[in-house]
Structure formats: structure tokens, C-alpha cells
Amino acid sequence: MNAYLPPLVIDVRVSETGARNFRIWLPFFLLWPILLIVVGFALLVTALVDLALFISGARYHHYTLLVLGSLRVLASVRGTHVNALSDDSHVKVDIY
Amino acid sequence: MSDDRKRILGMLAEGKITADEAEMLLDSIDSPAENATSATASSPSAEWPPGPSATGTPKFLYVKVTGGKDTVDVKVPLAVLRTGLKLTSLIPPQAMDQINESMDEHGMSLDFNNLKPDDIEELITSLREMEINVNSADGENVRVFCA
Fold first, then answer.
1. Of A39, A46, A77, B39, which has the fewest beta carbons less than 10 angstroms from its beta carbon?
2. Interface with B, mutate which of A16, A85, A91, A94 (most B CBs under 10 A)
3. pLDDT in tens, A29-42
4. Is B144 in a helix, a strand, or coil?
5. Which residues in chain B have their CB less than 8 angstroms from residue A70's CB?
6. Alpha carbons B32 and B65: distance in angstroms, whole number
7. pTM of whole model > 0.90?
8. Where are the beta strands (DSSP E) in chain A?
9. Under an 8 A CB cutoff, do A15 and B93 touch?
């Protein structure tokens, strides 16, 4: 089940010489309820489409798995870290 | 002391980065030097980062750019590659044909229909042996590896 959990938090930090440090802490988990509704609806629709395709004898009837697979790709970005340091700036992005 | 070290320590002194971040950046600067000393008899799995994944399935893809004007440190979970490749087996055949045609037009003749789950695991496991090391004339070092 953990493999389907989307990112919890996205942390973006930008610091530049002579400018105020900037940090955004995006609580992605607050979007989970909306995502749950969207994914739930999409799964319902795709399950009906897959059933119809299966009954009609279509070779491809995996739209539900495609939606679940897409959710897994979204979940797998957790743990991504990007750190860029130049002469006058520092950008750091962490996805938890 | 190199310019990169001075810059990192300066940013730490100014409070722009934390001590942990400074340590990580200093480590990333140190790694090319280690590579240079072990370049003649290097085995990617024997180098940084050590740990359990050094002998098992790699977990992350690392891209490190050091020694030049900018220092870049990227760490991407290989789960993205694994799940992404598995997703290709679920793409509708019509869409897959279009993807394959488009890739073929761009010189990449790779048929994703032939990718099996076992092949994906084997591919990811074998990435542990891969290391790309580019040293430019201006001293910039780009290193791509999995661990």
C-alpha cells in the first residue's frame, strides 16, 4: 500500500546572495483528499470501461491498471533530492 | 582551500545553508578527488556511497556535477524507472505503436512491448555496475551512477 502513497511534502529552498532566503514547504498531503476523490472516480469509470471492453471481447482492457500504475509512478518520486549551488545562489528541492 | 569549499563555508557562515547541507556539499566536492585517486583501478561499487545497496539492487540514481562554476547534486529514486517501465506494459497498443514510431523517428529503436518485468529487474540490478564519469578541460566533473 505504501507504494501507492503520493508525496507527503515538497520542500523548496532558494537562497541568493543579497536577497532574502526563500523557502516553500508544500504540504502535498493536504491534497490527498482531493486526489482520493479524483482517483476513486477515475478508477470507477475505468473499471466500467474495462468491464465493457472485456465483455465485448476487446484484447486491451487494462485502463484501471493504467490509472493505478500512474499513481505508483507519482508515489515513486518520493525520495528525490536536487541540490544546485552556483556562485550566488543555492537551490534545494526535496520530495518526501 | 578550493573556491568551492570557500563558497560553501561562506554560505554556511552567512546562514544560507545549514551545517548538514554544508557537510553534504563538501562530501560531494570530495568525491571527485577520491575518484581521481582510484581512477586507474576503480570499481564503481567500491566507491561512495557505500552501504547495503552497494552489493544489492541499487535504490537511487545520482548525478553529481562538481569542480566547475556550479555544483549540482541530484538523487532520483530508481523506483521511478521501475514503475515507469512497468507502466509501459499497460499502455494501450495503439498509443504504444505511436510511441515506438516516434522514438524510431528520433533514432531510438526500442520496442517497449518486448520489455518483461524480469528484464526490468535485471536492467535495474545491472545499473549498479554503471558509472559515467566526465572530466572536462575546465575542471568540471560530471558523475552519474546508481547505488
1. B39
2. A85
3. 888 899 999 999 99
4. strand
5. 87
6. 9
7. no
8. 10-16, 22-26, 81-85, 89-95
9. no
